[in-house]
Amino acid sequence: MRIAIASDHAAIDLKAELREYLIGLGHQVADLGPDTADRVDYPDYGYKLAAIVADGTAERGVALCGSGIGISIAVNRNPALRCALVSEPLSAALAREHNDANAIAMGARLTGVDMAKACIDAFLNTDFAGGRHGPRVDKLSNPDLEGATA
C-alpha cells in the first residue's frame, strides 16, 4: 500500500519510528516531513498529506502532532479526507469499518510507539463495512445530501 506520513516538530521522533515500521511491513511510504525538529506549523503538513491522499498518490495517510488534534483538523479541511483522531486500536478499526477513514491522526505526547503501531495495524487491516455506513460516509464530503439514513 502507498502511505503518506507527516508530522510537526513535536512528533518527528514518532514519525521516524512509524515510517520504518511501515516500510518493514512492505508498504511504500512518502515521508512528507519535516526532516528536523525545528519548529514548524502542523497545518502545513496536514494540508500536504491531505493533498496527496486526495489525488491518489497515497492510498492512506498517517498524520502526527503533539496531541493529534491540530493536524487532524488540518487534514479534514480537504473534503476528500476522512481523518480520525485515534488513541487505541479499536478506534482505528472503527474509523475504517464505519467511516471509511483514509487517514488517521495520533498525538506523539499522548500515544506511545507500541500503541501507535497497534493503531496503524488496525487501520490498515480493517475494511470499510459499507452497507448502512455508505450513505453516511457520502454525506461527510457532501453536506447537502439528504435521506438514506438506515
Descriptive overview:
The structure is a single chain. By secondary structure, this protein is α/β, with parallel strands linked by helices. It has one domain: Sugar-phosphate isomerase, RpiB/LacA/LacB (Ribose 5-phosphate Isomerase B, Chain: A). Helix content is 43%, strand content 16%. It has 6 helices and 5 strands, in the order βαβαβαβαβαα. A 5-stranded parallel β-sheet has the order 2-1-3-5-4, with helices on both faces. Helix 1 links the parallel strand 1 and strand 2. Helix 2 crosses helix 3 and helix 4 packs parallel to helix 5. The longest helix has 13 residues. The N and C termini lie far apart (32 Å). The model has no long low-confidence stretch (mean pLDDT 94).
The stretches of 5 or more residues where confidence is low (pLDDT under 50) are: none
- The strand line-up of the biggest sheet is 2-1-3-5-4
Which architecture name does CATH use?
A: 3-Layer(aba) Sandwich
The gyration radius over C-alpha positions equals 15 Å
For the sheet with most strands, the description reads: 5 strands, parallel
Instruction: Calculate the mean pLDDT score and round it.
Output: 94
CATH top level label: Alpha Beta
Number of helices: 6
What overall form do the CA principal axes indicate? globular
CATH topology: the name is Ribose 5-phosphate Isomerase B, Chain: A
* CATH homology group: Sugar-phosphate isomerase, RpiB/LacA/LacB
The total beta strand count reads: 5
Give the domain tally: 1
Helix and strand sequence: EHEHEHEHEHH
